[in-house]
Structures are given as C-alpha cells and as structure tokens.
Amino acid sequence: MSFPWANEYKPQHPLMQWVDERLPLPRFVYNAIGGGYPVPRNLNYWWNFGVLSGVALVIQIVTGIILAMHYYASVGGAFESVEHIMRDVNGGWFLRYAHMNGASFFFIVVYLHIFRGLYYGSYKAPREMVWLLGVVIFLLMMATAFMGYVLPWGQMSFWGAQVITSFFSAIPVVGEPLRQWLLGGFAPDQAALNRFFSLHYLLPFVIAAVIILHVWALHIPGSSNPTGVSVKSEQDTVPFHPYYTAKDGFGLGLFLILFVILTFFAPNLLGHPDNYIPANPLSTPAHIVPEWYFWPFYAILRAFTVDFLFIPAKLLGVLAMFGSIALLFFLPWLDTSPVRSGNYRPLFRKFFWVLLIDIAILGYCGVMPAEGPYILLGQIASAYYFAHFLIILPIVSRIEKPLALPNSITEAVTGKAAAA
Amino acid sequence: MTTVEQVESMTEATEGEGVRRRDFIHIAATSWAGIGAVAVALPLVNQMSPSADVLALASIEVDISSIDEGQAIKTSWRKQPVFIRNLTKAEIAAANKVALGTLRDPQALADRTKTGKENWLITLGVCTHLGCVPLGAAAGEVKGEFGGYFCPCHGSHYDTAGRIRKGPAPLNLAVPEYEFLSDTVVKIG
Ligand code: HEM
Ligand code: FES
Fold first, then answer.
1. Domain enclosing residue B176, as ranges
2. Distance from the CA of A72 to the center of ligand 1, in angstroms?
3. Quick check: ipTM above 0.90?
4. DSSP code for B168
5. What is the whole-number distance in angstroms between the Cα of residue B157 and the centre of ligand 2?
6. Do B63 and B130 share a structural domain?
7. Residue A312 pLDDT exceeds 90
8. pTM for this structure?
9. I need a labelling partner for A82 at 20 to 30 A (CA). Which of A92, A243, A258, A273 fits?
10. Burial A384-417 (b: 16+ CB within 10 A, else e)
C-alpha cells in the first residue's frame, strides 16, 4: 500500500515498458525505494541506519563469499588458512579485515537503528510487525556473528564456542544431549566447525529474506518520523527518490569513511589478540570475552551467581540472557502511551537515556573479569535493564503527561498550519 | 446439471453432525503427508548427533607414578581435559570436614574416589558452568578460595574434592569412569 498521491511508475523507454508489462519488477523497485514511495519530509539522520544496515549486510556477503574461496573448515587447517588469507592471498588481508570490521560496523549501525526505534516509538502501532521482524533479524545476526567468530579456530573462537554451546546444557534433562547434538561431539571439534561454516554461509541469506519482509511490513503504514505524528496529506511527504536517496547516500559516504579508517589503520582494535593463538582445547585463556557487541548480554549471563528457589544459577543466567532479548518482542504492548516520539514524552525521554547508560554499564561489566565490584555492578545493571521494560515503561506510559503534539508534520516543520 | 448434482450428493452427503465423507479423505491425506514429513525430518536431524568415530571413545592409560603428593597433571580424554591430582593429607582432611548438607551438589570425597586410593582425585577439567578449564592443576595456578580449582571464566570455586562451593557452576567437577590397572597406571574411559 502507499498513499493515494504516490507517483505512478511511467516507464519512458519502450524496453522498460516491455519489461514492466511482463514482469513488473521495475515498478516494484520504483514503488519501494524510488520516486513512487512517499516518505515524511522531516526524517533526520537517525533514519539513515536502516539503509546502512542493508549495506553492511551486502559488504559481509561479498567479502564472506570471497573469504570462503580461500578458507577451509578443518580443525587442523582453519587457523592456517586464515593466516594464508592474511599473508599470501592477493589482497586477502584487506578482505578479511573488511569482513571482521564489517561485522562490527554491522552491529554499530543496527544498534543505532534499534535505539532510534526505541526513542521515537517506532515499535508502536501500526508498525509492531516491523519491530518484531527487526528483533528476529537481530537474533539471526547474533547467531551468524557467533558462528563466524568460531571459524578462524583461534583461542577465543574455540572457547567462545565452548561457552556459548554450554548455554544449552543449562536446560534441565535434555540440555546436555542437546548440546552434544549441536556440536556433534563432547567438545567443539571438526563436526562443530564444519557445521558452523555451513550455517555461517547460510544465515546471511536468511537475514536478507527477513529484511525483505521487514521492509514490506514497513511500507504498509510507511515510515514514522521524528514527531511521531502520522502523515495526513501530500504536503507531509516527499518522494523517496531523489530526496532520501541523496540523504542516505551522504550518510553512506560518512559510514564508508569511518569503516575504511578502522579497516586500514586499526583493523584489530575491536578484536581480541588471543584469537591469533591457535585453539588449544586444554587451556582456557585467562580471561575470555566475547566480541564487543555481546558484552551487555554476557554481563547479564554472569549476573546470577547463587541459586534461587530450586532453579540453578546457571539456568537463571541463561534464561535472563535470552530473556533480555525476548523482552523486546513484547515492547509494543509494554509501552501503552499513544504518543510515539520521545520528543513529546519528557519523562520517558529521561528513562530512555538512563537505559542507554545502563546498557553501557552492562557492556563494561561484560568485558571486565567476573570478580569483586563488577559482579555487584553487573547485577544491579541487569536488574535495572529488566525493570526498565517491565516496570518503568508501563508505569511511565500511564502517569506521564505528554507535551502538545503538532497538528501535522508540515506544521512541525514550517511552524505554521498546513495551507488547505 | 445431473453430474453436478451427483458430485454434490457424493461430497456433501452427511452422516449426522455435519461430517462429510470427504473430511475423512482430508484428514487421512494430511496425516499421511505429516507422517512422511516426520520420516524425512528424522535423518535430517539425526545426522547432527555425534558420529560413530566421535563416539568410539578410546580409553587412555596414564602413568601416575611421577605425580607427587600435592601435585596434579592435566591430560586429554575424548578431546576433553582430565585432571589427575594426588591430594595431600591436609587436603583430604579439609574435604572430609565439610558437612554434606551445606553443599550445592552433596557428595563425600569417598564417593568421588576409589576405596584405598582416596588421595587420587580424578575429574574432568571442564567447569560445570559453561565449560572452561579451571585453574589449579598446574603448579603456580590459583586454586580458589577452597584450595581446589578455580574457574576464571565466571568465578566458580571448587574445593579439594573438586566440589562446587561458590560461583555459578551447578555441579561438582565430573568424575569419569576409570580404574587402577596397577598402583601406578590408571585407565580412563
Ligand atoms: C550477517 C553477515 C555476516 C556476519 C555478521 C559475519 C561475521 C563474521 C565474523 C565476526 C567472522 C570472524 C572474523 C575473524 O575474526 O576472522 C567471520 C568469518 C568468516 N565469515 Fe562471515 N559474517 C557474515 C557473512 C558471511 C557470509 C555471507 C560468508 C560467506 C558466504 C561469510 C564467510 C566467512 C568466512 C569464510 C569466515 C572465516 C575467515 C575469517 O575468519 O576471516 N561470512 N564472519
Ligand atoms: S565456565 Fe567456569 S565459571 Fe563459567
């Protein structure tokens, strides 16, 4: 669906007319990301991160397929093949560093994209399905990145695989058999490495498919905007092309500059040096940490150190970690305020920033050793994370008195009411 | 026209309660297709289980004559680390002093060792929390607050009987199947 005033696709060239009549693909593209898709005129740069996430996925797929031409998934050879890519394959170092840092940039833009949604209430009706599909994409990304990190078969790869697959052994009764089924053995070994490679190759394409659903669901109500006020008339919108193709193009330029700076000048900044030590199943590194994008969740996992009632601490930690993401599925129904944008919700806005600080603290606890003050700090920050969604948000939605909303997007932008 | 009526009378004929004869065909056909789908899914799922070569768990024989009292060694069985520790008198006494009721996973040292060989503590070196290798087997490694093993990953402390005492791990370090072939050789697995 689109607004009734959307431009219609009128192919000029006879060839395009011929194609359009037989397979309306050009029309589809025009209506999705071209001049035929009307978008609120007031989107700010926070609306760039969806397109940037898509670009990041393309970068991962292109560099990944090339890496797969030189990589081999064997416990005896994986580490060496990655070194072979780094030292011998022509330009291999660039492709691998681009893939490594591409994963980080993927998570950077996706996190900013998610925070945008949290602040501007993009998860609320009528966009719940867009949000739910987004959470699915996020879960798939985490699985993909985890399995990719195992592939070089360094110390962090191996012990990351050991620790993460052990999450499953926390499940009562079926846990340990399930873990052995996942690994195809008692510890990460050839079977696990091979299947992780297979799935690491597959999942990005599944992500691409879910992204199509995500954008499809988005295009039914159309994009939200910084005021959160719905589009009312043609004056409130501009066509996606050329307005937002230009704005997204500019953002993409900045993104790529930052990406190449990191890739060329500090390619290992976000990685862990221990992953340049070949995997040793008999010795755990002194301090294992996941990749930075998992730190907050790792802190939640470690927050449980004592059993509660008859539930073992280990199971509690695993449940809390998965719960912290599963919670996001319920967000559209936890926040009952009819006002979308945080700009008009003074109390909500304060708690939004507290939540961001809380997540930063969780990330810090996740990377620090599990001892002394970090345990307690992590426990408090984990409790707050859950309280934000389960207690604070529902209460704030009820007691808050929102600011007056503009009558329309055009009024918000030009300061005067829309001319008839 | 007649054919249409015939078809209707065949498919819409009801035997009470509005059940059509065709309902049976629908249920039978989808059930059969469902059974087929399960039959296909089984091998697709089962191929992921540990394969025969992985399950062919070779047992290992370890010479323990060179492990002095108070020392421990790390060896590998089924691709997993195993700790073999020669406990000191003081360590045995410390383990036996603990009231079982206070333990998360109550087991006495005697349940975890062979009679007459109480000084030999043989356990997997796999933390029961998330599978790291705890410290404390090699000389100079920290042994944790209870003098046994310490897992640095998320801070689990094990005592001198390899029992979980503090931290997130739910169970004691697992004791593998083993037997003493002689006073100095132990067979694990
Ligand atoms: C969702 C998109 C993707 C993400 C987030 C991702 C993430 C990662 C990560 C974090 C690594 C480890 C980098 C390292 O430390 O060396 C990796 C390695 C690898 N990935 Fe991906 N990846 C993605 C898509 C792909 C695709 C589509 C392919 C191939 C078809 C691929 C093939 C590989 C290969 C062969 C390696 C091992 C070589 C290496 O370690 O550099 N990846 N991936
Ligand atoms: S793996 Fe040992 S404490 Fe978590």
1. 54-188
2. 13
3. no
4. S
5. 9
6. yes
7. no
8. 0.89
9. A258
10. bbeebbeebbeebbeebebeebbebbbbbbeeee
